[in-house]
Amino acid sequence: METFAFALSVTGPIFLTLIIGYWLARVGLLREAFVDDASRLVFMITLPVLLFTKIFTAEAELGQELPLLAAGLLGTVVTIPLAWLAAQPLARGDRSAFIQGAFRGNLGIIGLAWAANAYGSSGLAQAALLMAVVTILYNLAAVTLFAVYSQEVRFSWGKLAKDIAQNPLIIGIVLALLCREIDLQLPAIVLQTGDYLASITLPLALLCIGASLDFSLLRRSSLAAFSAVGFKLLLVPAILLAFGWAFRLQAQAMGVLLLLASAPSATVSFIMARAMGGNSRLAANIVALSTLLSIITASLGLALLGVFY
């Protein structure tokens, strides 16, 4: 019972914050223009600052996290082709939405928030490093999906490299690692300012995600949507945990791996499906449904991990 209470204390506040954001949007206190501007602020400024400060001030060294990074990378490499295979019985227009929703998780906000709630700054630093590695792989997979399914747009590998190099989140992580490597000493006033900016990141981002959700779509959820959500919330965590067990990760690293693997489908999957000329309504259904159900699967998974690992 204690382990489940702990698990619920990790996922519950995040879910309630999403619901508050959803309610504020419904009553008109969070307007679309504000949500757009706030989301851009989080992505461009406050989230990179959060990642930089947590990694820069973390006690653990990068070399100590290599088993965690390897487990996350290899597990994701396995899940992507499995998602592609699972999508083959669907109509061609539905496949891109299914694949994106099935493997691509909301690591940058919900995954990080869960890790921070569960394990504090050390867990957040581990999650940030894992997110950087997996995000690069997500982008590689996205380019492949564009090449296969896009009806209008084609992306090149050169554009992919440019996008990765210009990604503010990856820039923040790489800068933090470089500053640690050269043993840079930042003034306390700079770190304190960074903490101020970082402290608004997760609450603001969660409110924006909640404001963007449309749970009315759940009434039109199809078998394809439920299948993609089952893949994302059940199969993906199982595969990544299997790799974590094979690498003999410590309990906290396994918990971080589980929480990031259990994150609901990323909202960008809706954008990608629409850009590829796919079924954007299916993609939106997957995002809403996985967000609603992830609190149950992540809580149960974290509780079971505490009992058996």
From TrEMBL:
Membrane spanning stretches: 6-25, 37-56, 68-85, 97-116, 128-149, 169-190, 196-217, 229-247, 253-273, 285-308
Which keywords does this chain's UniProt record carry? Cell membrane, Membrane, Transmembrane, Transmembrane helix, Transport
Cytoplasm among keywords: no
Q: Topology versus the membrane, per the UniProt entry?
A: Multi-pass membrane protein
InterPro entries assigned: Mem_transp_PIN-like, Na+/solute_symporter_sf
UniProt keyword Transmembrane helix, yes or no: yes
Where is the protein situated, by its record's location annotation? Cell membrane
Q: Which family does it belong to?
A: Belongs to the auxin efflux carrier (TC 2.A.69) family.
Q: Which PANTHER family match?
A: AUXIN EFFLUX CARRIER FAMILY PROTEIN
Protein name per UniProt: AEC family transporter
